[in-house]
Amino acid sequence: MGNIIVVIKVIGYLITIMAIRDALKMFRKDKSLLKLYIKWVRDWVWALLLVISVLVSVGVIISLNPPSWLKFSWISFISGGHAQNLVTSPMTSGYVPLVILFWVLMAFSLPYLAKMEEIMFREGVIDLGARIKKSIIFGMVHMVMGIPLFVAMLLCITGFIFSIRYCKVYRVLGSEEALLASTSLHMKYNFILITIGCLLVIFL
Fold it and tell me: What does DSSP assign to residue 124?
């Protein structure tokens, strides 16, 4: 079982490296996305509220001891219950210099990775039914990273909130600005989550 966990962690490192590589490719084409950290400042407030809502929901669900099918993930299935998110494997290493390096690289990459997902799941999707469908797919796709089913279900709701942000801006400023707006909220949400995770690993 220990060998399986090591393999899972190695796969996580490789996925993280590939994600950062893809972000670097996008950076060479468009350096302006990094400005999203200071654009639409109010998105930081909404992102923080969204992170708090998700973390509280996760805590409540875990405290209620949900049925095993809700806690299912492919990683826990093959490793006998070991919980792991592939993308955050470097963060959970416990080695502080690596955690800091992971945070710096992800902080740089997040605007680009978020935009990739927004193009896939939000761009041009205005109809309510299509938005719901895309949001469900958005949440469920994250199970590939090894998260439990109930977390993926929460991400379906998060994805729908991103689509609300997209549609509100789309109706006023059009598709291009709407894509940047949903990317902004998505990126800030991810940044807060990863920052909290890294701080907990370093100081706890």
Answer: T
Alpha carbon distance, N-terminus to C-terminus of the chain: 26
**pLDDT for the residue 204:** 81
- What integer pLDDT is reported at residue 10 of this predicted model? 79
**Ramachandran quadrant class, 45 (left: phi over 0; alpha: psi -120 to 50; beta: rest):** alpha
Domain ranges in the chain are: 2-203
Collect all residues with Cβ–Cβ distance below 8 Å to 86 and sequence separation of at least 6: 8, 11, 12, 15, 16, 75, 144, 145, 146
Angle among Cα 163, 169, 175 to the nearest 5 degrees reads 85
Between CA 168 and CA 182 the distance in angstroms is: 10
- CA–CA distance, 191 with 44 (Å, rounded to integer): 10
Q: Which of 107, 110, 101, 112 is nearest to 27 (CA)?
A: 112
pLDDT digits (tens, 9 = 90+) for 135-164: 999 999 999 888 999 999 999 999 999 999
Q: Is 95 left (phi over 0), alpha (psi -120 to 50) or beta?
A: beta
What is this structure's pTM? 0.92
Which residue, chain included where needed, has tokens 């492919």?
A: 74
Closest CA to 8 of 122, 116, 94, 85: 85
